[in-house]
Design brief:
It is a single chain. 20% of the residues lie in helices and 31% in strands. The strands form 2 sheets. It has an 8-stranded antiparallel beta sheet with strand order 9-8-5-6-7-4-3-10, with no helix packed on it. It has a two-stranded antiparallel ribbon with strand order 1-2. The chain is elongated and about 100 Å long.
């Protein structure tokens, strides 16, 4: 067995060996990949933040300096009259029905039912329900694959009841946003 030459023992490079490519070094890829990932993520976040922003508050809001105020008189009237109702959907029958629970409703006047999509106002639906035997009713079908924000009131918006119809549920209770004092 022969003893390796002193150059091999000291670790000096052999002139016959080819130098390694810098692209085979993991640190080079890390130096390139991290800034590229940051740039791509930043562009994605800017795209998401600059979306169409359709989820808006439906109430009329007045701004004074940095204070926002909304008119809650319709909620106060519904609370004073102790109004509440149930909204019921029937997919088989193809109708939506409102049944009064408490308070005194004008049973001869139609009611306006607003079904607001929680994130896309383009999918909002406003229905006019005519008086019926048990309450108010309209022939319509409702997509139950997501939640709905529900608002009920007369055509003149004198009072209003609100609630949320969860995904897959067929009925919900509507109440005034303000509690009776």
């Amino acid at each position: 067995m022969t003893d390796p030459s002193p150059e091999k023992r000291r670790g000096t490079p052999d002139p016959t060996d080819k130098p390694e490519s810098p692209w085979r070094m993991p640190i080079v890829w890390l130096v390139i990949a991290l800034p590229a990932a940051v740039v791509i993520a930043s562009i994605g976040l800017i795209f998401i933040a600059g979306g169409d922003g359709n989820d808006v508050v439906r109430d009329d809001v007045q701004r004074t300096a940095q204070i926002q105020t909304a008119d809650l008189s319709a909620d106060a009237i519904a609370s004073e009259q102790k109004l509440s109702a149930i909204v019921r959907t029937d997919a088989e029958g193809g109708f939506i029905e409102v049944l009064p629970v408490s308070g005194t409703f004008d049973r001869d006047a139609p009611l306006r039912l607003t079904l607001a999509h929680p994130s896309d106002s383009a999918r909002d639906t406003v229905l006019l329900l005519g008086p019926g035997e048990l309450g108010w009713r309209v022939d319509a079908e409702l997509d139950d694959s997501h939640d709905w924000k529900v608002e009920l009131g007369p055509e003149d918006s004198h009072w209003r009841l609100r609630g949320r119809l969860p995904k897959g549920q067929q009925a919900t209770n509507l109440r005034p946003s303000l509690q009776a004092q």
